[in-house]
Amino acid sequence: FSNQKAPLNFIKAIPDVLRKKRDVQFVMVGDGELRPKIEKLSKELGIDSKIVLLGFREDVPEILRVLDVFVLTSLWEGLGRSLTEAMYSSRPVVATSVEGVPELVKDGETGILVPPNDFKAIARGILTLLSDQEKAQKLGQTAKQRITDAFRAEVMVASLEKLYQEVLSEKLDKKHF
């Protein structure tokens, strides 16, 4: 757990979720320098019995299959692997709208985007998906289709070819002037 992933914002969102949905369990995969702070804040908020810290895991696809919602609270993120895996697993996503994330998560279409550092918005997003299973399922299915379409071999090759063409055109233009 690192500052980049902002796990404390996830922890701060949990009490708001539990006020409306008491039967929810939270799972965090990963580990790192912020683990002691996560454990301390969880105890202070009285939610430590509702959180399972799994540490680093090799079986993430299996874990994703049993989640109702995937939450990404990063303060900065490229095209995150965990986000891509969650979307490919048809999990509905609540994610912070930072850097590369909106390239994958289209708010209201393939997931719910929230502002970074806004644990209240994170909680609202989680509650929306937990309260409306039909919407959650639709977002998850659309998310999987988005990942499948975006990362098909022919799409990746076409993107790379376009990039090469742009770079070559730029170099040729500079040589002639």
Number of strand elements? 5
**Main pleated sheet:** 3 strands, parallel
Identify the CATH homologous superfamily.
Glycogen Phosphorylase B
Level-1 CATH class name: Alpha Beta
Q: Assign the CATH architecture.
A: 3-Layer(aba) Sandwich
How large, in whole angstroms, is the Cα Rg? 19 Å
**Sheet with the most strands: spatial strand order:** 3-4-5
Structural class: mainly alpha
Distance between the termini: 51 Å
Measured by DSSP, the beta-strand proportion falls in: 5-15%
**Number of structural domains:** 1
Give the uncertain stretches in residue-range form.
none
Query: Globular, elongated, flat, extended or rod-shaped: what is the shape?
Result: elongated
How large is the count of helical segments? 8
Helix amount:
55-70%
Order of helices and strands: HEHEHEHEHEHHH
Layout: helices, strands, pairs:
Elements: H1 7-20, E1 26-29, H2 35-44, E2 51-55, H3 60-66, E3 70-72, H4 81-88, E4 93-96, H5 101-104, E5 112-114, H6 119-131, H7 133-150, H8 153-176
Parallel strand pairs: 1-2, 3-4, 4-5
Structural notes for this entry:
The chain has a single domain, classed as Rossmann fold. The chain is elongated, with a radius of gyration of 19 Å. The mean pLDDT is 94. The chain has a three-stranded parallel β-sheet, sandwiched between helices. The protein has a two-stranded parallel sheet with strand order 1-2. The chain is mostly helical and 177 residues long. Helix 2 links the parallel strand 1 and strand 2. Helix 1 (7-20) crosses helix 6. It has helices spanning 7-20, 35-44, 60-66, 81-88, 101-104, 119-131, 133-150, 153-176, and strands at 26-29, 51-55, 70-72, 93-96, 112-114. It is built from eight helices and five strands.
